[in-house]
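Z., the sequence and structure:
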Amino acid sequence: MGVMRPHASRFCMAILAGALVFAALPCARAQQMEPRTYANAPIGLNFLIAGYQYSWGDVLVDPSLPIKNADAKVSTFLLGYSRVLDFWGQSGTLAVLVPYAILSANGAVEGEAKSVTRTGFGDLGLRWSVNLLGAPALSLKEFRDYRQDTIVGASLTVTAPTGQYDNTKLVNIGTNRWTFKPEVGVSKALGPWILEGDAAVTFYTDNDQFFPGNNVRQQDPLYALQAHVIYTFNPKLWGALDATYYFGGRTSVNGNVNEDLQSNWRWGATLAQSIDINNSIKLYFSSGVVARTGSDFTTVGIAWQYRWGAGL
């Protein structure tokens, strides 16, 4: 096999880089599975969230490209804040999330080993959600008598291009673009069981400083469906089995379409335990079932949550 031309090598590494960046940022991505997103809570309650997650696995690209054995490991530290608010008589939340990631990736291009390490803040995530039906705005005293039946909710998640980004590098923690993710969800309680379903689409603005700084990278909308089966063991402990399917998201650079259309399945599990009135811990896991392009990652994580306000 002949020596790859420099521009072709850069093109292949750019595709690899795009997949790695996609894998590096857990915030507001289609792979993320969040049970009980639209659960009701007392108005004025605040949440401080600190977490850590570790992801590892393969980066999947077009098999015709001379990229082999591409894999990555990503450690992400998460810090977030959320508050429950009254929106027109229904409960809702405003939340902000800041990720800090440590990424290491390896791969072979035309038989030559390539590796990269990046450390820095990821893109800031902002989320507004409102329950449209079945989750009225309640005080803490009123909430003690509340029992869930059917909840219908909607949300909008926005990520801002605040993360570490250098247009002279192929791989970055930040993405240098905005994303907008509207979502609708339904949650139905059946005794100790809760069944949930969500549908979302993520829209991307252009990255007009793609490597080596004068290229434009575009991405088509990415559609996602997710489902959760949740069981409440007791008032302080619940667990969930989670699944998601996401598709679309094909990218292009300067109008040249890449063969990276996604059509992937993931499954996961979540376990949450309240320690006392203010503190709780959540453990979660997810892994790919079928992955066409993008990333086939396994993720494990832990999150601590501190609650205050609303008269607790």
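The chain has one domain: 6-309. Residues 6-24 form the longest helix (19 residues).

Let me know what you think.
H.
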